[in-house]
Write a structure and sequence with these properties.
single chain; alpha/beta; six-stranded parallel beta sheet; 13 helices; 17 strands; 35% helix; binds adenosine-5'-diphosphate; binds magnesium ion
Length: 395
């Protein structure tokens, strides 16, 4: 991949795909993490004296033109506060407003196009739309790692028609995750949780080829426990995935990977803030209760394995961490990872990142990936269209 460091952007019109898909309430950005993550690249380009043209999607508009609800106006406002300079907002994506504003842009100024998904051609990776976008600029920078797993006009097609470069965030995400997979410091401990085995099975499969220890928690542990013949009560299980879970346990054995499953779990009759809970052995899960967190003994075993790790990858909470009665397992795992200051610690996945933030340990992690789906696909060993487009550059 050519990166922004190979680019002399001075005086050039640089079209930058960023991920500014931030939550908005009452016209205000409520979490500016993604905007902050885009700043290094945007500031570098401004500093070089480029004419910066930003583009992003936000939410799921219908693709029939402007919709107030999905406008990037609140994003432009917050971004201009973060940059300390004006962010000019176009009224359209490649229409008259975008064209006019892009052509009158001065060196060091920033223009933001409206939501690229207002144009239905975006998600179809339309060459026409890519050509229209390209006509606004001289070069293209992709810094939107979070959408790199989608082949869209602004993430893939555009790189066929403009010289393309990776931005800092894109570069950092790809380098960090790739080196974790290619040459992890050992022992390499992977911690996987979350709700669905079906979502994570490819990640588990891929990590069994890389990790020394694989820790399983979250709702998906019950599909594994069921495959071991344990009673799971009313816990969430995916019946169709029991055989695959069993295959994974066998694969771990044959590869010499230590696969850790819970030995005890926190159970309750209902998922609620004031549920009455108890910790039981995985051999004694009552038939009328659900497992909603790993138990204290399991949390200690997991924390101990994490303590001995030289690198840790974590995706997926250990329980329903959003509610206090089921948050302890996830908290203990988050703290164990944070406390292992010598290890490379990498966190991926929307809810896992939310957990790390909620427990106040984000700044102790080596790297927190901004790309939920994209990081999972990369870890699964899948090619990301947005990354491949940067690699295949012939222009
Ligand atoms: P990530 O976004 O980090 O990849 P997932 O989306 O896979 O994680 O899973 C997160 C969700 O899993 C959380 O909302 C959490 O409440 C839920 N969850 C975790 N453990 C359980 C459980 N035992 N039963 C039901 N839901 C669970
Ligand atoms: Mg999630």
């Amino acid at each position: 991949m050519r990166t922004i460091e190979d680019l002399n952007a001075s005086g050039k019109r640089v079209l930058v795909r960023v991920d500014l898909n931030a939550p908005i309430k009452d016209g205000q950005v409520t979490d500016d993490t993604r905007l902050v993550a885009a700043l290094p690249t945007v500031k570098e380009l401004i500093g070089q004296g480029a004419k910066v043209i930003l583009m992003s999607h936000r939410g799921r508009p219908k693709g029939v033109g402007f919709e107030e609800e999905f406008s990037l106006a609140p994003v432009a406002k917050r971004l201009s506060e973060l940059l300390g300079q004006d962010v000019i907002l176009a009224e359209d994506v490649t229409g008259p407003s975008a064209k006019e504003l892009a052509s009158s842009l001065e060196d060091g100024q920033v223009l933001l196009l409206e939501n690229v998904r207002f144009d239905a051609r975006e998600k179809k990776n339309s060459p026409d739309m890519a050509a229209e976008l390209a006509s606004l600029a001289d070069v293209y920078v992709n810094d939107a790692f979070g959408t790199a797993h989608r082949a869209h006009a602004s993430t893939a097609g555009i790189a066929d028609v403009l010289p393309a470069y990776a931005g800092y965030l894109m570069q950092k995400e790809v380098d960090t995750l790739t080196s974790m997979l290619d040459a992890p410091k050992r022992p390499f401990v992977a911690v996987l949780g979350g709700s669905k085995v079906s979502d994570k099975i490819k990640v588990i499969d891929a990590l069994l080829d890389k990790a020394d220890v694989l820790i399983i928690g979250g709702a998906m542990c019950f599909t594994f426990l069921l495959s071991e013949g344990k009673p799971v009560g009313k816990s969430l299980v995916e019946e169709d995935w029991v055989d695959r879970a069993h295959d994974m346990i066998k694969k771990a054995k044959s590869k010499g990977v230590k696969l850790l499953l819970p030995v005890d779990v926190v159970v309750a009759k209902e998922i609620s803030e004031d549920a009455s809970t108890s910790a039981v052995s995985v051999d004694d899960i009552p038939s009328d209760q659900m497992g909603l967190d790993i138990g204290p003994e399991t949390a200690d075993i997991y924390a101990d394995a994490i303590k001995k790790a030289a690198s840790v990858f974590w995706n997926g909470p250990m329980g329903v961490f959003e509610m206090a009665p089921f948050a302890e397992g996830t908290r203990k795992v988050a703290e164990a990872i944070a406390d292992n200051a010598d290890a490379d610690t990498i966190i991926g996945g929307g809810d896992s990142v939310a957990a790390v933030n909620a427990f106040g340990v984000a700044d102790k992690m080596t790297f927190i990936s901004t790309g939920g789906g994209a990081s999972m696909e990369l870890v699964q060993g899948e090619a990301l269209p947005g990354v491949e487009a940067l690699k295949d550059q012939v222009i």
